[in-house]
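Wait, can you check?
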Amino acid sequence: MNKLFQTKTFSPAQLQGSGLKRTLTAGNLVALGIGAVIGAGIFVITGNAAAVHAGPAVVISFIISAIGCALAGLCYAEFSSMFPVSGSAYSYAYATMGEFVAWILGWDLILEYLLGASTVAVGWSGYTVSFLADLGIHLPTALTQAPIDFTNENGWYLTGAIINFPSVFIVTILATLLVLGVKESATLNNIIVIIKVIVILLFIGFGIAYINLDNWSPFIPENTGHFENFGFSGILSGAAVVFFAYVGFDAVSTAAQEAKNPQKDMPRGILISLLICTILYIAVSLVLTGIVNYKDLNVAAPIALAIDTAGAGLRWLAPLVKIGAIAGLSSVVMVLMYGQSRVFYSMAKDGLLPSLFAKLHHRYRTPHITTWLIGLACAVFAGLLPINILSKMVSIGTLLAFTIVSIGIIILRKRRPDLPRPFKTPWVPVVPIAGALVCLTQMFALSIDTWIRLVGWMAIGLVIYFGYSIRHSKLRKDS
């Protein structure tokens, strides 16, 4: 039992990132963070959170989530500067709280990245279908919707569709690109980030003139009697839902072994990308709820709806927004799949997953088998499941990861105060405790169904750990 919590010491070779190419600069890491964060959250989830949970006060929901992310981000920054290795929070937990907690967190990250990429792929499908329809190309509904759906009223049911083919298509293309190399992927991501940030700034800049102040009244709608619907409790539930909008900034930390100067650039990449995204989210949510009444925002493309509502004055922006959304969602899928492959790679290197997942392509030096496996699983989820189920599962998985990372900083400061820390989280233990509390509060604001699915996912993980990983762990064998 003591070995369940045995911690791992990273060797100089591991910290140097043997095997993977160091090609990413600080600018690449910031773009990686923005590329991961700005996507389905701003183009899709914002409208649902306003219409169902918080009303115009969705901006407060974004601020609450941003505070939780900033506090956790400071903890991530310290860990990433100390342990510049692939694996993100999984590796940090291994170094501080032991193998069992590391497995729990690694399995949780699989939930975050895999389902996150699937969710965004579904959003990409929605905007692509809409854009093609504007061009006169109409894809059959049977090939653009999930065949399985879920509502509180009806439970699980079949929609009559066959598969969401566009989402499967984009996952396949991006998985291929990731196999070809991280430098090539980062270059494409940089271009996409520029495109979608310009589109968002255009929407904010020109949309301000079309804000109707009456749409902000009441700013906090009265609670309907249900915890999740409006009032202060609705704002908390909205914060838990829009937390999905921030999913991915932690994926920057998975690139540590491919960063040129990880000790300095990792904290910069995490914190700068988070700051930029938070400012953009707050501005977009204010303009969006100012142009359209929050009751009408529960649609697949809320920003497109706002442009249509504004009338001819903003109509010229509609195709640009859809192009920006398509490009932006593409980069999110790519970065989340990238993060997932590096977590798999790290877990396989430690023996907790089959060594097959740690193999690198002889030419491209990327974990190609892992990337193809993740692409296949992501395509299955994106092709079969609806976005509302996927997004809530991603939020609760990410919140759990942030909570454990925040607690890990306190533990490591107590156990190993001697370790060099190129970046130090300020005001410890206040910052990590506050980060853990904010994340836990948002977790408890999610529905019981989401919690049940999380417990089921973790149960599967425990079966795999005690059935395979515990017998193949390299740390156990070495000790």
In short: The beta strands are 148-151, 155-158. Residues 22-478 form a domain with the Amino acid/polyamine transporter I fold (CATH 1.20.1740.10). The mean pLDDT is 84. The longest strand covers residues 148-151.
